[in-house]
Design brief:
Length: 175
């Protein structure tokens, strides 16, 4: 059990540090950060697509054609994103809203389960509710500017990083 808790401590610490670094980058240049995230997303999709195409052509898998079609799809999406990063950036606000809402729901479920095993910090509940609220806010984006939405994501990343580091510290103290 101690080994599991220690690995969770490392995982939560790593998530916290990465989230804090992302929030720092967003606050330094919000408009540039959104375009950069969109471009990296395109590059990632292109790389994944190429890898899938190569593995489909070299492999003898039953799903070879399916993997090849997925690889072509990912490659085309990646190229499209890289050519039109502005349109992708706007779409990414919606994706971020979906992701953060989903994350908030999972965190709320995790809080409720953790509460039965050991005393769960109220900060975890606040974090789950805040995640749901920010996710829904981004999803339905009543703000017209993507830069403002990016700043909200930066604030969320900052909050997420702090709470993950706090959770890692709590797990470490209980193990």
């Amino acid at each position: 059990m101690k080994q599991v808790l220690r690995s969770n401590t490392f995982s939560e610490t790593l998530k916290g540090i990465i989230a804090l670094l992302i929030s720092l980058l967003i606050f330094i240049d919000p408009a540039g950060a959104l375009m950069t995230i969109a471009t990296y997303f395109g590059i990632l999709a292109l790389i994944v697509g190429i890898i899938m195409i190569i593995s489909a052509t070299k492999g003898n898998s039953v799903n070879r054609n399916f993997i090849l079609i997925q690889g072509i799809f990912f490659s085309l999406i990646g190229l499209l994103i890289m050519v039109y990063p502005g349109a992708t950036a706007s779409f990414m606000v919606v994706l971020a809203g979906l992701f953060i809402t989903f994350l908030g729901a999972i965190q709320l479920a995790g809080y409720l389960q953790m509460k039965e095993i050991l005393p769960a910090p109220q900060l975890s509940l606040i974090h789950a509710i805040l995640s749901l609220a920010i996710g829904l806010l981004l999803l339905f984006n009543p703000f017209k500017g993507a830069v403002l939405a990016t700043l909200i994501m930066g604030g969320y990343a900052l909050w997420f990083g702090i709470t993950r580091l706090y959770l890692a510290w709590q797990i470490y103290n209980h193990s």
